[in-house]
Amino acid sequence: xxxxxxxxxxxxxxxxxxxxxxxxxxxxxxxxxxxxxxxxxxxxxxxxxxxxxxxxxxxxxxxxxxxxxxxxxxxxxxxxxxxxxxxxxxxxxxxxxxxxxxxxxxxxxxxxxxxxxxxxxxxxxxxx
Length: 128
Fold this sequence. Notes:
3 helices
């Protein structure tokens, strides 16, 4: 499956969910219409109610799949009310700072060793 077609497929799936929601509402309306009659057919009411519940369960499952997908792909993106992005940036900056300090300390140690090695030979020459 190509990446470019994936968003289109997801949108088509959401469009199908929207149609199922309309069907669900229609089944509920038919059940209520039947109940409002003077002599309601309980068989018809049960049929419409059963169809309503079946469709509703399917819609709920499909929406849950889409919500799960969105939570997986959006974790790197901060959203309103979320501190995740700021915390991630802080931790990354803190890590870079610690790494820079460590490298500077390594350079300082190297410089001190180089100075110490140049000072020793000079002092050895002064002390015969």
